[in-house]
Amino acid sequence: MEENFNMVAKTLFGFEELLANELTQLGAQHVKKGVRNVAFSGDKGFMYKANLALRTAVKILKPIHSFTVNSEKDLYDKIYAMDWSPYLKPTGTLAVDATIHSDLFSHSLYIAQKTKDAIVDKFRDTDGQRPNVDLKFPDLKINVHIDRRQCTISLDSSGDSLHKRGYKTATNIAPINEVLAAGMIMLSGWDGQLDFMDPMCGSGTMLIEAAMIACNIPPNLMRKEFAFERWQDWDVELFEKIEESLLGKTRDFHHKIIGYDKAPSAVAKAKENVKNAQLEDFIEVKHEDFFKTQKGGDQKLHMVFNPPYGERLNLDMESFYANIGDTLKQNYPDTDAWFITSNLDALKHVGLRPSRKIHLYNAKLEARLVKYVMYEGSKKGKYMK
């Protein structure tokens, strides 16, 4: 039996609850929410499973040592004193990144450099050889986290951020992060029991994440590599068993997922990404201007989208957002419409009162995820108070 160990899943602001629920449903032990992270425990197979299956995690870290630190020399000495041989060969490669919340240390790059020096010096002194730095494909990726005087050294089991799912080869000028898209769809309550629409679909991220949620497809099956595949204890048989078990839990989907975009280039990109994700059976992408469309059929519609904020596209934001409100009110009865924006001034021009507002960030932009409930037959716009 593999032994359980502690891990930390990092996430985006506002997704801690979602991630804690995902971990609990996957079978994690001792789940505890933090800020932009959730701590938990599990065995090696569970670490593989978490990397493959979590939609709202950006990293899975495995802490291996924790200590108080009072100076840069103290940090160097304590890292030098650690036994690195179970994790890295003297001929191997490493990369170090650091996050710091401390008045004692200010430069994360310098702390990462100091950590690297301590590790390579230790190997040189004990083995006569030293590992090299490889920032792109290291055998071991190490994370240093200093909070005031407390330092935690972790192994990064993910490597590249888990938002890099592997299906996206084509993007547009303002692509949405895959983890942010998945979290928004989960916050919206989407469960695959209705038709889904993204009326400004760009490169198709929202559509693909929605389809994977509806079909219970693990989001990271298509990734080329996880960092743990280069670890000394990498168990390919166990990994394949976990992968197979997750694939056995996918489910059928009997509704439509529709994407519109008025830019032909975006439609082409979205179609390419949908094809890469092998989800053409579930997703239809059309060249349409949302403001000239109306809802088809009598079924309730679930809509989630990421309209322009005016950050990178030069538009008259006030009239653009007024158009969103008018189109929803006049042409989309019996629809729950959710969208994210960081343009809080333009949001006032939608002309509808949101029934929910959730505080999130899109990259570094402070944003709101808002929900508008359009009632059936509401040509006059009887929206929720």
From TrEMBL:
GO MF annotation terms: methyltransferase activity
CDD domains hit by this protein = AdoMet_MTases, THUMP_AdoMetMT
> Which keywords has UniProt assigned to this entry?
Methyltransferase, RNA-binding, Transferase
Q: Which GO terms describe its biological process?
A: methylation
Q: Please give the InterPro entries that the UniProt record associates with this protein.
A: RlmKL-like_Mtase, RlmKL-like_Mtase_CS, RlmL_1st, SAM-dependent_MTases_sf, THUMP_dom
Q: Which residues form the THUMP domain?
A: 46-157
Organism superkingdom: Bacteria
Name it.
Answer: Class I SAM-dependent RNA methyltransferase
Source organism of the structure: Hwangdonia seohaensis
The opening ranks of the lineage are: Bacteria, Pseudomonadati, Bacteroidota, Flavobacteriia, Flavobacteriales
